[in-house]
Design goal:
Elements lengths: L1 H8 L4 E8 L2 E8 L6 H4 L1 E2 L5 E2 L8 H13 L6 E5 L5 H8 L3 E6 L2 H13 L6 E4 L11 E7 L8 H11 E11 L5 H10 L2 E11 L4 E11 L3
Parallel strand pairs: 5-6, 5-8, 6-7, 8-9
Antiparallel strand pairs: 1-2, 3-4, 9-11, 10-11
Helix pairs in contact: 3-4
């Protein structure tokens, strides 16, 4: 399995990135120069909906949410679902702090990277599921649902809210991060219209040539 995984990753231009979180260092294998893959992996479905290879990027929102998770401390006995896991950073951090994580992504290629990154950070048998959040295939509830930069597209808002309502425990939380997008307020208006509530915090992260603002939202389901 390890040999097959390595062969699969060799199909991509990769590089390693080290991320320091409190007292832990995470090493990730990520796509090198993901912009070069945009034309290769972009596609339209039968309805003309354009799919872009967002999974090929390590987003600042994921790094920020990973920092936030590391600051929560002990997550032992917490069942966590990550949607749109990409390279797996956020879920890996949660696992290293004791949680039982299910990594999910629509793109199977992202799960190959999440598997590789989990294993090279000491998580031998991560739970990975290819899943479209419009038709979730899980029948269990979670203490925490994680998502980094997953609300960029308005067509995803209702499915994500439905997923939270169906899969989040009544006393659980969802933690979403996003880079202060202009349309994000519409998602959180919809959150409140559907009986959910949220708290917002903002922090800065150093990007390539500037400091950018990332919002972290803690979402609660108060309908029960």
């Amino acid at each position: 399995m390890k040999k097959k995984l390595s062969q699969r990753l060799q199909e991509y231009p990769t590089t390693n990135k080290n991320i320091s979180l409190n007292n832990r260092d995470i090493t990730l294998t990520i796509i090198n120069h993901p912009d070069d893959l945009l034309e290769i992996f972009s596609r339209e479905d039968s309805d003309g909906v354009l799919y872009l290879p967002y999974w090929t990027y390590l987003w600042d929102s994921a790094i920020t949410l990973a920092h936030h998770i590391s600051e929560l401390g002990d997550l032992k006995n917490q069942r966590i679902l990550e949607i749109g896991c990409g390279f797996g950073l956020v879920g890996i951090v949660a696992e290293l702090y004791g949680a039982e994580v299910i990594f999910t992504d629509f793109e199977i290629e992202a799960l190959f990277f999440a598997l590789e990154n989990s294993q090279q950070n000491g998580i031998d048998s991560p739970k990975l599921v290819q899943m479209d959040w419009t038709t979730p295939c899980l029948d269990t509830e979670f203490d925490i649902i994680l998502g980094s930069d997953v609300i960029y597209d308005q067509q995803n808002w209702k499915p994500i809210i439905g997923l939270i309502q169906d899969l989040l425990k009544c006393d659980g939380i969802a933690l979403f991060s996003e880079p202060n997008r202009e349309n994000a307020s519409g998602f959180f208006d919809l959150i409140e219209e559907n009986g959910l509530s949220y708290e917002k915090s903002t922090c800065s992260i150093d990007s390539i040539d500037s400091s950018i603002q990332i919002n972290i939202y803690t979402i609660y389901d108060e309908s029960d």
